[in-house]
């Protein structure tokens, strides 16, 4: 082997070793991350709502059992399968919030409104500072279970938890103008008041202001 060829081989070996060292170092410094499983996504230890007794852990367990052991309602086959699979998953992953929200949605669409309520009640107990379960419950009790006082309670909780949830004020407005309270004058007063509340808390949003202007215009006719 000529001297020039020998030098070229030595340079190649040194460069190759350096490259290998570089990638090994990168491998040590930047390990590949693995995605978390569903039980760690958006989950925290259950915190009881105010007014729930100290044994709320038992209440959570009983609520979970009531929701998950209900009969799977008949209907769309894909929804039935998803509901069955989620119910099995939640028995081993009871803190999986998104799973509980989805169980409520599936049961609602399959016509099991009481089952939907149980699932969303569990979600509300599991995450009392998240407005979604409360909003879902408010809609369910307003339009499907027709328990308007409960609807008001849950819809009110949703906007108290998330004051910038503009649609939540509209949901309360709809309750007051369509269904509750029985005294329509009282309902009208509450309807206007909740729009004004939402506007005050969200001054840069025009949605509620438009609804209020239209509502006042209609009532002047």
From TrEMBL:
SMART domains: TPR
Region (Disordered): 34-56
Signal peptide boundaries: none
Top-level taxon of origin: Bacteria
Name of this protein: Tetratricopeptide TPR_2 repeat-containing protein
Native source species: Candidatus Giovannonibacteria bacterium GW2011_GWA2_44_26
């Amino acid at each position: 082997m000529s001297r020039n060829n020998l030098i070229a081989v030595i340079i190649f070996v040194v460069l190759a070793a350096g490259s290998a060292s570089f990638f090994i170092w990168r491998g040590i410094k930047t390990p590949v991350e693995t995605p978390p499983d569903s039980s760690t996504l958006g989950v925290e230890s259950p915190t009881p709502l105010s007014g729930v007794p100290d044994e709320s852990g038992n209440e959570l367990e009983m609520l979970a059992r009531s929701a998950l052991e209900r009969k799977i309602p008949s209907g769309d086959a894909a929804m039935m399968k998803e509901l069955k699979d989620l119910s099995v998953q939640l028995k081993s992953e009871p803190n999986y919030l998104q799973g509980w929200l989805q169980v409520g949605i599936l049961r609602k669409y399959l016509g099991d409104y009481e089952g939907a309520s149980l699932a969303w009640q569990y979600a509300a107990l599991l995450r009392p500072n998240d407005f979604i379960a409360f909003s879902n419950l408010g809609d369910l009790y307003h339009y499907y279970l027709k328990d308007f006082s409960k609807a008001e309670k849950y819809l009110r909780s949703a906007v108290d938890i998330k004051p910038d949830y503009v649609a939540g004020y509209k949901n309360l407005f709809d309750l007051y103008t369509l269904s509750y309270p029985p005294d329509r004058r009282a309902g009208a007063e509450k309807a206007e008041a909740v729009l004004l509340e939402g506007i005050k808390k969200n001054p840069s949003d025009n949605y509620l202001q438009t609804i209020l202007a239209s509502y006042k215009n209609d009532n002047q006719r």
